[in-house]
Amino acid sequence: MFNEESTSSPGMAIALEMTGVTKSFGAVVALRDGELRLRYHSVHALMGENGAGKSTLVKIIAGLYLPDAGTLSLAGNPVSFKTTADAKAAGVAVVYQEPTMLPHLSVTENIFMGRLPTSRSGNVDRKRMRREARALFDRLGVHIDPDRIADGLSIADQQIIEIAKAISMDARVLIMDEPTAALSPEEVRRLFAITRSLRDEGRAILFISHRFEEVWDLCDTVTVMRDGAYVSTSPLAETTERDVVRQMVGRDVDSLYPRGERTHGNTLLKVHELTSLGVFHDIDFEVRAGEIVGLAGLVGAGRSEVARAIFGVDRYDSGTVELDGTPVRRHDPLHAMGLGLGFVPEDRRHQGLILEFGLSRNAALAVRRMLARLGIITDSRENSLARTWLSRLQVKARALDTPAGTLSGGNQQKIVLAKWLAASPRVLIVDEPTRGIDVGTKAEVHQILADLTHAGMGILMISSDLPEVLGMADRVLVMREGRITAELSHEDADAESVMYAATHSEAVKA
Amino acid sequence: AAGSSSSDQGTTALSVGYVPKMLANPYFDQAGVGAEEAVKELNGDYVAVGPQVGAADAQVPFINTLAQQGRNGIILSASDPSALGQALTTAREAGTKVVTFDSDVEPEYRDLFVSPVPDMSLSKAMVDVMIEQIGEEGKIAILGASPNAKNQNAWISGIEKDIADSHPGIEIVEKFYGNDDDQESFDKTAAALQKTPGLSGIISTSTVGTASAARYISSSSFAGNVALTGIGMPNATKAYLEDGTIKKFVLFDPADMGRVGAYAIRALLDGDITGKAGDTFTAGDLGEYTVEEGGIVQAGEPIVFDLENIDQYNF
Amino acid sequence: MTEVAFTASATSGTRTYLTHALPLWRRTLLTHEAMIILSVVVVSIIAAASIPRFATPLTLSYLLLDVTPILLCALPVTLILVSGEIDLSVASAVGFSNVVIGWLFAEGVPIQGAILAGVLSGLLVGLVNGFLVAVLQLPSLAVTIGTLALFRGISIGILGTDSITNFPVELKSLANANVPGTGFPLVMFAVLVAIVLFAVMLHFTPFGRSVYATGQGIDTARFSGVRTVRVKFTLFLLSGLLAGLVGAYYTFRYGSARGDNAAGLELAVIAGVVLGGVSIFGGRGRIVGVVAGVLLIGLVQSVLRFMNYSSDVINIAVGGLLVVSVAVPLAFTAITQTVAHARRKTSTPMRAEESQHRKGK
Amino acid sequence: MSAIQTRPSQLTAGQRFAAVLASRESAVVIVLALLILVATLQNPSFLFGPDGVRDLLLTPSILVPLAVAQAVVLITRNIDLSVASILGLGAWLSASTLANNPGLPLWLVAVGAVVLGAVLGSVNGVLIAVLGAPALVVTLGTLYIYRGLNVLWADGKVVSAVNMPKEFLEFGVGSLLGIPNLMIIALVIVVAVTWYMRSRPSARELYAIGSAPFAATLLGLPSKRRVFMALVASGAIAGLAGFMYAARYGAVDSQAGSGLELSAVAAAVLGGVAIFGGSGTVWGAAIGAVLLVTINRALPILGVPDFWQRAVVGLLILGAIVLDRLLALRHARKLSEIREKEND
Ligand SMILES: Nc1ncnc2c1ncn2[C@@H]1O[C@H](COP(=O)(O)OP(=O)(O)OP(=O)(O)O)[C@@H](O)[C@H]1O
Ligand SMILES: Nc1ncnc2c1ncn2[C@@H]1O[C@H](COP(=O)(O)OP(=O)(O)OP(=O)(O)O)[C@@H](O)[C@H]1O
Ligand SMILES: [Mg+2]
Ligand SMILES: [Mg+2]
């Protein structure tokens, strides 16, 4: 346990305090003994791997989730938020990780919904609302038409509106869950300037980000979480990036990534000048048998979009995809699957699994046609297939008809992997394969991927987890704003070169 | 004469189901009153069942149920001439006598049809009342009830025939249907009057339509310019006699059909008649009836209502 | 792909999995479907015991004949609801097929040709729905309200005030015939075949799996190689095809073709399907439940008619069944949650996020 | 930054005008105007006949309030199929009360119909908003139940013009300054609800709830209460429409208004109300209702036989939603083109 007096700047009153907060979703314990202490006049960072429970903690403070146990107090008074309205009323403003726009309403109404300004007669005061929205945008230095409807806004603009919304609430406690994930450096700079001025006004701010430089730039204190549990809180001045990483991951990072000697065979997947207007451009690369190709870049760089286009879920405008010399039809995943392509998508809950289906139905979904005999598919055939793959991947579950949605994140991810391994693909695209899964499972997944390459599979791995890409990939492609800006060999790829290519358009193709 | 002698010979008790095209319709309610009275006079058991709205197949389940309940008579006004065929056949095979009234089915599906009045005499009566008002010259429209009902079509073609035969100066320029629905008849009348300027009169073969059309006309600028007549329910139409929208209208007493229907069932059960032409039976106070060609019995004669006699009727 | 040696699995021993988490009786008896089937049985027994003349072959025959059109339409509509869409135009498709048959027959087309054209007409309705819903991805509720009006309008337009009735007697008696000496209508063999076909299709084929996947998670379905557009299109075609066949059956069952035939049948179909446990939000429901749901409605109607109730009471009963079938489970959950909350006093589980998302029509 | 922005402040007057024309409501107004124009050219009495204008205004006066009620519910991503049955009960309450108590003030009866409608709507509200049952199923059920209750209550009777006080009947067909009384009521409803939906914070929350229910929860909006109130309002308006129905047609039986629920949904969809919530305006739904009803009256004049009218209505509904989709697709393509330009 850390010593409170030694790690916090004395003289700053506590704005929000959370102790012993626990939250589980069915079998998944998202947060155990969560702890947090925010002070006025301070920007507090919250760090932790994907799935560490940061957002869950935020949602409890926001009143969206009711905690299973633990206490929360604001300015020393115990509170218990039943709804998000309660938290708002108590002076807590939240920027959620995923923007939550009202697509049919105007930008202005999105900012003020729930507390629309009214004139004396009780009508919505549109003029005032618009004026205030303009003022907010000026302050943030962005140009979004306050009268346009929210539908069709880019993720970046949505994020800015979320920030404007939170700022406009004039809250004493401001919580921002990865607000910068989609922003450009210039926008980030402005956001930081505003955040600092809010801090100087005396507000307590919680800032969540996976980017170390941002945290060191903006914050004064950092709390680290791991596997849903509180690890430590320390003033940033007294800690280093290395310490934080060690606390986040819990062990030596390098030992995670098994890389035996790999021999690369012939080219399996060949993507040529793939373009989807406004999304990505002239994407060119190959994946060979027995090779892991990493695709790195910031969130929003268009990596998942490329993968989806290759697999055929999304349309594209021009270019070709070939698998082992055979052209893959546009916009036809079934055809791609027939040729031996598999795809573990990034959003396992909405793209990978049917949450209400049992495990065996999920595992058999991609191979349903092959499982059928004379057109008839039976539970027993699905079950025997599922038994094989679930036990190979060591899925922790009791019964085969357990709804997939009730498994823990890591086990859900394994079901998605099982589903695709059952289809015996030659090339497997994995998009954020270890997002939100615990350290142990993460190592297991990496081991599985390594084993697959040894058996001759080609793997295209998209990951926002830089150490993972660097550790696993034989070659690293870096994307920025829809274009490949660098191709680095395993030896040349390091954090610096990848991040440089991810943020600069004129990167060298190595 | 034959009927009354055999009714006390200990034959099976009368058990009649009355099935109108739709419930909650004053016309059919009045017919039901007659049927119920007659069944009671014959010491029988009476039940009125049916759908809320007229549709071809909606009556089928009710007829089936009556047959299953073992009722020995059904008095029916059919929404469709053939859709009930199978149900009626099955019922009759089980011994149920089927008498239709007001709107017939194909003859092979029933024992007898009680027509309110001879079709032609009703059509003639309507045309005569109209001629009285507009003279032998002019354009008229016809407002019908449902386009598929046999009696409607019979009356309308009767009107057309009478006009063609005896009133060459009259031209029927428009036919429209209100489906025995207040709202529809009202709106369609409005549309028809606008569509065909210079109309001298409307003959409505729908009792509901007559009142609705009167209501539209009386509140519009057509009041006094367009003559309206046809068949109508005395209670519902009285107000328009009083305000002058309608001078005279025609009908018969629907209760007579019900009464005759009930007595016919008794006679059929007793074997006094079989439904062939020339058979005769007595319907209580109404007197003796003779079955015409095609198994048809005429229950009465048209009544012309005007301000003088309207107060004698209450239905 | 060659066999992969899994290092991970080599380290820890093989796992075993139960096939089912719950024992058989709980999986089969504590379901919505079982409740509906039980209701059918209980109502039949009570009615047979307490209503004179109810328990006859004739009752069965009439009940089955009455539910046949509803049941046949309910089968594809079940699949459509499972896939997350809705079809309100079935009754208009039935009517359209009925009118086309009557019209062509009256125009002198041989009856076989007329029937074929009628079935194709039903298929045409499905084609239009499928194109608008699956291909253009328009909301099926709005689309099928539109096609409901359109094809009913065309039917009324074609026949106008006419009613075609002179259909061949053999076909009419075939449509109404029973297996000799029983109360079992011949047409029920066709219905049974259809039920089995649809049950197999939904529960035992890859296509059925695709239908469920489409309704429960259309994105996951697409990411799993389900051609969701094709699936939905096929379902609407099937619905049109069955409606076309029902239109032909209807023609001979009632020996009549007219513009307003089968109007309003769509509500009876939806009512039966929903009562049978199919979720209006897609992804849930089974054919056995739907068959039971349709039978339950037919049975309740038949019993009430037998007791000389008229259609007002019957409609209240049908509406009540519908409301009760959705409201009671929800009320039950709400009550158990409140009780659980009261027990734990300070903390409750988060109200299901999913239910917020799913809130819709 | 690659944000896409369209700035109306920089649009020319012409572009703004084009944008207004492109809105669904104006499109419907234009179609309506064209329809009246063509029908009048074909047959001048359509508009200039003695009752032309009056009938043009009177005929839609029942469907307009129903469409308004439906729009409010649709905007919250729900649906109310029971409106026509509620109308029926409101009509029967009004007609039978006035028949039995001819001296009663009309406004009192109207209030009674509104209260009855609100009570029936609140039953829907409890089941849908509070329990969370699907609106389509619940209101399909109450459609049957309410109509059945109506039949039981009416007990096979009909209240016809003769039974009703003269004053009521005259009110039903009378007009003020050339505008039929009933249309005045309908207009008051449209104006009031439009004002409310545009101006009051609680109404904007209805849009928010329909637009993204989960986001509305995140924002802390009182979704249950709002949806409940929307259904109560829908019932209340339908009850009032029942009163108007009785005044208009002067004859009420237990089937008054049956089948109008689909017309109400169709009118709202035609007027640009999205069936999945969040968008559309109340006056759009109202104008949709006017178009729907006027088409029915104009088609015979345009030489389309009576029998084909429903088909035309169906085509119109389909046309409206297909058009919506095409416009949305065009919009999306434009956005991606803009994005493309900015990227280069
Ligand atoms: N509604 C939910 N139902 C079930 N499990 C959930 C739910 N929300 C979160 N979880 C699980 O709880 C764990 C913590 O998730 P949380 O979103 O708090 O992580 P995080 O630290 O914010 O990660 P990231 O950096 O990816 O945003 C994860 O395993 C996640 O899958
Ligand atoms: N009749 C209406 N009913 C409901 N919502 C409406 C209506 N008209 C406009 N809205 C909505 O209100 C918002 C703003 O509308 P609009 O731009 O017309 O108002 P405004 O010109 O800003 O008003 P004012 O200048 O009077 O304050 C938009 O989201 C629009 O969809
Ligand atoms: Mg998070
Ligand atoms: Mg991605």
- Helix content bin of chain A: 25-40%
Beta-sheet strand percentage of chain A?
15-25%
Pair of chains with the largest interface and how many residues each contributes: A-C, 71 and 45 residues
How many DSSP E strands of chain A? Answer: 20
Domain ABC transporter (chain A): 16-252, 263-506
GO molecular function, one term (chain A): ATP hydrolysis activity
Subcellular location (chain A): Cell membrane
Membrane topology (chain A): Peripheral membrane protein
TL;DR?
Chain B is of the alpha/beta class. Chain B has helices at 2-6, 26-41, 60-68, 85-93, 119-134, 150-166, 182-195, 207-219, 234-242, 254-269; strands spanning 15-19, 45-48, 73-76, 97-101, 112-115, 138-144, 170-177, 201-204, 227-230, 249-251, 280-282, 288-290, 296-298, 303-305.
Give a description of the structure:
Mean pLDDT of chain A is 86; it is low at 1-10. With 510 residues, chain A is of the alpha/beta class. In chain A, helix 5 packs across helix 6. Chain A has helices at 4-7, 54-61, 84-89, 107-112, 126-140, 155-168, 185-201, 212-218, 241-249, 303-311, 333-339, 348-352, 359-364, 368-371, 379-392, 409-421, 439-454, 466-472, 495-503; strands at 14-25, 28-39, 42-48, 69-74, 77-79, 92-95, 173-177, 204-208, 221-226, 229-235, 267-276, 280-288, 292-297, 318-323, 326-327, 341-344, 427-431, 458-462, 475-480, 483-489. Chain A has 3 domains: 4-101 and 153-249, Rossmann fold, CATH 3.40.50; 253-340 and 426-510, Rossmann fold (3-Layer(aba) Sandwich), CATH 3.40.50.300; 355-424, no CATH class. In chain B, helix 2 runs parallel beside helix 10 and helix 3 (60-68) runs parallel beside helix 4. The longest helix of chain B has 17 residues, at 150-166. Chain B has helices at residues 2-6, 26-41, 60-68, 85-93, 119-134, 150-166, 182-195, 207-219, 234-242, 254-269; strands at residues 15-19, 45-48, 73-76, 97-101, 112-115, 138-144, 170-177, 201-204, 227-230, 249-251, 280-282, 288-290, 296-298, 303-305. In chain B, strands 2-1-3-4-5-13 form a 6-stranded parallel sheet, sandwiched between helices. By secondary structure, chain D is mainly alpha-helical. Chain D is globular. Chains in contact: A-C, A-D, B-C, B-D, C-D. At the A-C interface, helix 11, helix 12, helix 13, helix 14 and helix 15 of A face helix 1, helix 10 and helix 11 of C. The complex binds adenosine-5'-triphosphate (2 copies) and magnesium ion (2 copies). One magnesium ion (MG) is lined by residues 54-55, 97, 177 of chain A. Chain A: Keywords: ATP-binding, Cell membrane, Membrane, Nucleotide-binding, Repeat, Sugar transport, Translocase, Transport.
